[in-house]
Recover the amino acids of this structure.
């Protein structure tokens, strides 16, 4: 019974995390060693009521809010998030204050909760985005395009499950649920996404030098 420790805020802020576009595609999975994990991860889970637990333990450590534990069999237990990851935002609200504030933000959320973390020793050119489908037929909301023998994100649908994820237009799809998609046709990538009945974890590489932008509101 956790979701311990956590946040809230106002005022508009944007934290730009620059990432290099150099280097080839490197396949990683959420279970890979720490040095090969994506540098940034978002996980979106469903929360039916205020009493629903997402299973995230948090504590203030080494100057930042970090994941202290993840409850087994909880909504976040199969996400790429790991103990020790630095929590950047919850539902676009920056986590720069106490764990209690972040906990309150999760508790008061109904519908979906999106947690964004930084893997400080991860690959800063890669992002992972996990979304949970309330129904097998639910749409993740990615529009893809082909290019250079791979599949790229053309648009993130504002009505889709991935709208609050770290995926952006221009990102190159690397893997879907640990399946190498780095040279896969658009139709096959979309099939892999649609075939996932519960959770979909997409690893992507940002080709742009602008990198990841995490938008948050502070209060």
């Amino acid at each position: 019974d956790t979701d311990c420790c956590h946040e809230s805020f106002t005022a508009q802020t944007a934290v730009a995390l620059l990432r290099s576009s150099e280097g080839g595609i490197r396949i990683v999975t959420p279970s890979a060693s720490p040095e090969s994990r994506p540098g940034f991860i978002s996980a979106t889970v469903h929360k039916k009521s205020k009493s629903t637990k997402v299973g995230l333990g948090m504590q203030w450590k080494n100057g930042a809010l970090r994941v202290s534990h993840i409850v087994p069999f909880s909504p976040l237990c199969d996400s790429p998030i790991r103990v020790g990851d630095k929590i950047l935002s919850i539902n676009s609200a920056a986590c720069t204050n106490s764990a209690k504030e972040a906990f309150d933000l999760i508790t008061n959320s109904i519908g979906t909760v999106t947690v964004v973390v930084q893997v400080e020793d991860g690959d800063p050119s890669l992002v992972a985005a996990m979304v949970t489908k309330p129904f097998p037929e639910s749409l993740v909301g990615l529009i893809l395009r082909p290019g250079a023998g791979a599949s790229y994100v053309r648009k993130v649908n504002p009505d889709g499950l991935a709208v609050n994820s770290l995926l952006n237009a221009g990102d190159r799809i690397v893997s879907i649920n640990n399946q190498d998609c780095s040279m896969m046709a658009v139709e096959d990538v979309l099939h892999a996404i649609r075939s996932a009945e519960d959770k979909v974890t997409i690893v992507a590489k940002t080709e742009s030098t602008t990198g990841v932008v995490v938008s948050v509101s502070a209060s």
